Amino acid sequence: MTAEGAISVQGLRVIRGGREVLHGVSLEIARGSVTGLLGPSGCGKTTLMRAVVGVQHVAGGSVTVLGHPAGAPALRTRVGYLTQAPSVYDDLTVAENLRYFGRVYGVAPGRAEEVSAVVGLTSHLGQAVGRLSGGQRARVSLATALLNNPEVLVLDEPTVGLDPVLRRDLWEMFHGLARGGATLLVSSHVMDEAERCDSLVLMRDGQVLAAETPARLRETTGAEDIEGAFLTLIAGQEADV
Questions:
Q1: Scanning 131, 157, 205, 234, which has the fewest C-beta atoms within 10 Å of its C-beta?
Q2: Looking at residue 4, what is its pLDDT?
Q3: Per-residue pLDDT tens for 146-177?
Q4: CA angle, 103 then 105 then 109, to 5°
Q5: Residue 86, C-beta contacts closer than 8 angstroms, at least 6 positions apart
Q6: d(Cα 87, Cα 81) in Å, to the nearest integer?
């Protein structure tokens, strides 16, 4: 891994349910960047992210995060992970959830209020999470992932089901975190979010089709947008079969 690298994936193979779902994936993700992981549902995005945070059994290859093997004890307070399903307690209030996870991480008591403000939940601190909207619950989960100010933040479809204004605000927040030195890996199957990323990893059928900046992808494929670039890459892949 280069001096600038935060995540290095080399020849990663994953088998689930007797079927190989990642076929020798390799990629490098730079520090202090927002990298979009894009592709259709079922292409292997979540499996790859699970491997990055060290909770996925792998059949071959390696994943290194901040110079350590993925899942190493040294990374427990340095990597944040947001799953697709909200990972908080419905019967607790927003504030109680944040205080609980704050104690787990060992962060200062005032950190809960800080992250609730970052994700726009200050006015909902006293509400039970189970009574919140889907988008608000997702923001509570994101707030818990931010509590320990992680150096690497892995976000699995964080904007799904959110309104356009909130999606815009979250992407602005992601770039603010990156400017502060954090590295973000953000998955999505919505191609219009691609232009918000510093770099992109396009996946299909458990393989990486391309890993470039949005501008470079448009340039090399001659497409007007990322969706067009993705379709061009698919056509090229099928022509080679």
A1: 131
A2: 59
A3: 998 999 999 998 887 777 887 888 899 899 99
A4: 45
A5: 129, 137, 138, 140, 141
A6: 10
